[in-house]
TrEMBL record:
Belongs to the V-ATPase e1/e2 subunit family. GO terms for molecular function: proton-transporting ATPase activity, rotational mechanism. The chain crosses the membrane at residues 37-56. It is a multi-pass membrane protein. GO terms for cellular component: endomembrane system; proton-transporting V-type ATPase, V0 domain. Residues 1-17 form the signal peptide. It comes from Erythroxylum novogranatense. Keywords: Hydrogen ion transport, Ion transport, Membrane, Signal, Transmembrane, Transmembrane helix, Transport. The keyword Nucleotide-binding does not apply. This is V-type proton ATPase subunit e1.
Length: 70
């Protein structure tokens, strides 16, 4: 439940940021595309970082078990 809710929060935040950039920084088609690309990339990267940390806590590796060859 927490993963889905937070993912939706990231999606909504990305949409709101995209709309704000479109309204506040309307300088031309190429600049608008750059702003939109940067916002989407930042949102996806932040979500991926959060998701990796969240999922890594589900089964933590406290004491690594080394094989005989190492």
């Amino acid at each position: 439940m927490g993963f889905l809710v937070t993912t939706l929060i990231f999606v909504v935040t990305g949409i709101i940021a995209s709309l704000c950039a479109r309204i506040c920084c309307n300088m031309g088609p190429s600049t608008n595309l750059l702003h939109l690309t940067l916002i989407i990339t930042a949102t996806v990267c932040c979500w991926m970082m959060w998701a990796i940390v969240y999922l890594a806590q589900m089964k933590p590796l406290i004491v690594p078990i080394l094989s005989e060859g190492e």
